[in-house]
């Protein structure tokens, strides 16, 4: 029994000495930033805002580290496009980065990078342009951060066919919009007409996509078709045989645009 008590006492004394030792200093790593987007590509389309010729998008940036008591700047560089890239966006023409407003505010770990984008003639003609940016280290954020979130590609568009449009016969995808009884075959001219017809001046937005099957579309979709049809009849009565203006589609033998049902 004495031997057991001796070892127990020795063990307790060793624990006491260990608890009195100085705790090791935790390693403090420098703060870093990274893009807070869900993907490495961020797409923006003016189709949602058909009356805007320019807009400002805000790219989220997060801090890998701690909040501090002062504002901290966000530094980026525009990466040079590959030679011969016809879809390369031009800084100052397609976009501008507002560097002086790019910051992480004091006592926060989230910031944003404002970028002004412009609806240029090539976007109106259906082209898509891209540019890539990369975060830069500085005195505020000297560490590297999350490598895969240091670079971001931004895609700008206007009149682009939605992926869920569908086809005239409905035989392949069966999507709602492209089916003959609805909007019919997609074209830039027809799409712009639809955007204008469904424009809401209060929100300054319009309806750009109609995902879903033609067999069981949301009831609201049929209402959209009716709105577009009435818009055409009021603004282009000649499209339905009336007296007045006509809007023809240059991509389809200059046919007058009709919807619900569509004539092409």
Based on the model shown, name its key terms.
alpha+beta; six-stranded antiparallel sheet; Immunoglobulin-like; 264 residues; 2 domains; four-stranded mixed sheet; single chain
Characterization of this structure:
It is a single chain. The chain has helices at 2-20, 121-124, 188-197, 219-235, and strands spanning 32-35, 41-45, 54-64, 72-73, 75-78, 95-97, 103-104, 110-118, 129-136, 151-157, 248-249, 255-256. With 264 residues, it is of the alpha+beta class. The strands form three sheets. Strands 1, 3, 4, 6, 7 and 8 form a six-stranded antiparallel β-sheet that branches. Strands 2-10-9-5 form a four-stranded mixed β-sheet, with no helix packed on it. Mean pLDDT is 90; it is low at 1-13 and 15-27.
For the terminal residues, how far apart are their CA atoms?
100 Å
**Overall SS class:** alpha+beta
Work out the strand percent: 15-25%
What's the assembly state of these chains?
Answer: single chain
Rg, rounded, reads: 29 Å
Helix content estimate: 10-25%
Sum this structure up briefly.
The protein has 264 residues and is α+β, with helices and mostly antiparallel strands.
How are the elements arranged and paired?
Blueprint: H1 2-20, E1 32-35, E2 41-45, E3 54-64, E4 72-73, E5 75-78, E6 95-97, E7 103-104, E8 110-118, H2 121-124, E9 129-136, E10 151-157, H3 188-197, H4 219-235, E11 248-249, E12 255-256
Parallel strand pairs: 2-10
Antiparallel strand pairs: 1-3, 3-8, 4-7, 5-9, 6-8, 7-8, 9-10, 11-12
């Amino acid at each position: 029994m004495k031997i057991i008590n001796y070892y127990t006492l020795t063990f307790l004394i060793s624990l006491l000495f260990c608890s009195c030792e100085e705790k090791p200093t935790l390693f403090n790593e420098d703060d870093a930033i990274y893009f807070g987007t869900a993907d490495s590509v961020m797409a923006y389309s003016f189709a949602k805002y058909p009356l805007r010729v320019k807009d400002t998008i805000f790219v989220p940036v997060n801090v890998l580290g701690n909040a501090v008591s002062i504002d901290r700047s966000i530094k980026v560089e525009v990466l040079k496009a590959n030679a011969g890239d016809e879809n390369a966006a031009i800084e100052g023409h397609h976009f501008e980065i507002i560097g002086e407003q790019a910051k992480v505010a004091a006592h926060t770990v989230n910031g944003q990078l404002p970028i002004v984008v412009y609806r240029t003639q090539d976007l109106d003609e259906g082209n898509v342009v891209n540019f890539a940016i990369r975060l830069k280290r500085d005195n505020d954020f000297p560490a590297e951060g999350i490598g895969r979130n240091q670079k971001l590609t931004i895609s700008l568009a206007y009149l682009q066919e939605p992926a869920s449009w569908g086809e005239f016969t409905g035989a392949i995808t069966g999507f709602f919009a492209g089916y003959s009884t609805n909007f019919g075959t997609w074209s830039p001219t027809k799409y712009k007409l639809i955007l204008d017809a469904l424009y809401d001046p209060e929100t300054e937005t319009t309806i750009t996509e109609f995902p879903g099957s033609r067999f069981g579309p949301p009831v609201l979709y049929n209402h959209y078709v009716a709105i577009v049809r009435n818009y055409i009849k009021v603004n282009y009565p000649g499209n339905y045989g009336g007296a007045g203006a006509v809007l023809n589609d240059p991509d389809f033998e200059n046919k007058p645009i009709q919807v619900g049902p569509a004539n092409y």
